[in-house]
Here is the input.
Amino acid sequence: MIGWQTIADLVQAIPELAESSVREVQPIADLLQDQLDVPQTIADVVQNEVLAELSLGELNLEQYDLSAIPGLIDAPLETFQDWQQSVIDQIPGLADVPFVNFPNPIMEQGVVVGMVDVVFGPAEGDRTKRSPGGTESGRA
Here is the structure.
């Protein structure tokens, strides 16, 4: 999920990140390393439309710990851009959380059972017909 976030998306999801210097957040520093004039703070980066739209997907994110981006671990999932597109195994640590700890527990849907009476042969065909109300109607 972090791979499709831009720097601007990260700041929107983690507002306190804007106050950090670029050098304090290694993935962002690495993303900006080829830029000639790198701003001092991440808030300054977001002011530049071109830099703000750089995607973290341009990096090999496997080389970073979750703590490399301050506030990332504590940020609610719904604050990230397109978070609904994520699957559980793409969110580090989420697959280890038991379902009982989720804010909205899984509700049982119940079991639906249907009954069908089918005549398979002559031995089963000699039955008294019943009306839908449950009283005998006799044979026609």
In short: The mean pLDDT is 79. Residues 7-13 form the longest helix (7 residues). Residues 2-101 form one domain.
